Amino acid sequence: MAALNFAPSLAQYQQSARLLAVLILAGCTLLAARLHSLRGFLAGLSLASYFAFIQFSSSDPFVSRCATTLLACDFALLLLVEDVFFDWQAVMWWAGFMAVQWTSFTAFSRWDPAMLGSVATKQFILPFASIGPLELIFALSVILLLMRFLLFSEAVGAGLVWALVAISAGLRNLGLAEAYIALSGLVIGICVIERSHWIAYHDELTGLPGRRAFNEALAGLGAVYGIAIVDVDHFKKFNDTFGHETGDQVLRKVAASLSKVGAGGSAYRCGGEEFALVFPELGLEDCKYYAEEVRKSIEEDTFFARGPSRSNRERPERRTAAARGRHSSAVETSVTVSIGLSEPARPNQDVQEVIAAADKALYNAKHLGRNRIEVFSPRQARTAKPNAPKAAVNKAPASKA
Predict the structure, then answer these.
(1) Order of strands across the sheet with 337-342?
(2) Looking at the chain, which terminus has fewer C-beta neighbours within 10 angstroms, N or C?
(3) How far apart are CA 226 and CA 262, in angstroms?
(4) Long-range contacts of 325-332 (CB under 8 A, 24+ apart)
(5) Are 54 and 68 in contact (CB under 8 A)?
């Protein structure tokens, strides 16, 4: 943007910038479709419609300002689109809406430009500034997009904001408007890739890094580290009692507590109700201390769980909830976790052996009553091996007797 801002608007570059904008907008839209980003695809359609209007409309700066404000409204309207699945029906509706919108705006701007100018240049007196409707609408659209991004940290939402910033900067140099549009399309395409990357490496339900991120974290560990395997106690029973929606709520609450682990530890969701904590460059005793803090915070975090009969949808299994012992009213409850912890016993030990040891420690924690931390150190296991045959010998006579 800085380079384009100081670039001269030379006519010989305009054709190249136009071709570049077409290629980037087409690539951005196809990439969004391939990566199943509905909001990114609709944003690409909006940019393409805006680009077409700029090409076939007059080069009046005021009309360009009106079109940019209209594009900002379209981007703000995209906040109503849930970017969770790709819906071709929504794409057809949006394409029709774009066609009607830009055709109407083109006709209106050519039919009575004086009326358009008198309405859009009327000043509003605010406490600190005198601005017109165009600036006010544009600013409100950007504020809405920023608020959505700050609340949900969505990559495509950030792309919409930066695309508007680039296009508004292009209004200062209309000779390079196509180059700024190409830059906006490039920004949205990059944000679509970022969204796809986040989905690949994070768990959608809890927001924690997923199995792929966990495997990459294991590959980067040094000689000293600790791994904790965390499992939610009685999760299946909890699901059967309160329903899967409350079960999802439990997983999110546990994930939120695990994400606050200290000492540079990282939390991952490995699948189902199983999580993992990785402590790089931390000894076993320190790992146990911080894992215990997390376990206590989960145990003390009570919440109200509601039975599945609270749903308005009538399902056969919910109509028989009372007969199956499910709760239909709010119940104050809490959830606990069992944790198995281990560390490498020797240099260059295979990390999968450490994970297997942590799994054994988790099994011991559940066998001993749950809601606790058990440590399995291969070093301790080797020192305990000589006593195993003696125990077996002592048990044999007793069984015969």
Answers:
(1) 266-271, 274-280, 225-232, 337-342, 373-375
(2) C
(3) 13
(4) 325/241, 326/240, 326/241, 326/242, 326/243, 327/241, 327/242, 330/304, 330/305, 330/306, 331/242, 331/304, 331/305, 331/306, 331/307, 332/302, 332/303, 332/304, 332/305
(5) no
Within this chain, do residues 256 and 196 fall inside the same structural domain, yes or no? no
- Residue 33 reports pLDDT greater than 90: yes
Give the pLDDT of residue 112.
61
Which single residue is written with the structure tokens 């601005």?
A: 131
Nearest to 275 by CA among 375, 152, 359: 359
What pTM does this model have? 0.75
255 token code pair: 């994930």
* In-domain check, residue 236: yes
- Assess whether pLDDT exceeds 70 at residue 7: no
Question: Can you list the alpha helix ranges (DSSP code H) found in 172-266?
Answer: 177-201, 211-219, 235-242, 244-258
Per-residue tokens: 189: 């395409």
Q: Domain span at residue 261?
A: 211-388+392-396
Same structural domain for residues 59 and 131? yes
Q: Enumerate residues 6+ apart whose C-beta is below 8 A from 12.
A: none
Least confident of 113-122, 285-294, 302-311, 325-334: 113-122
Query: 369: alpha, beta or left, given left = phi > 0 and alpha = psi -120 to 50?
Result: left
Q: Is 331 helix (H, G, I), strand (E, B) or coil?
A: strand
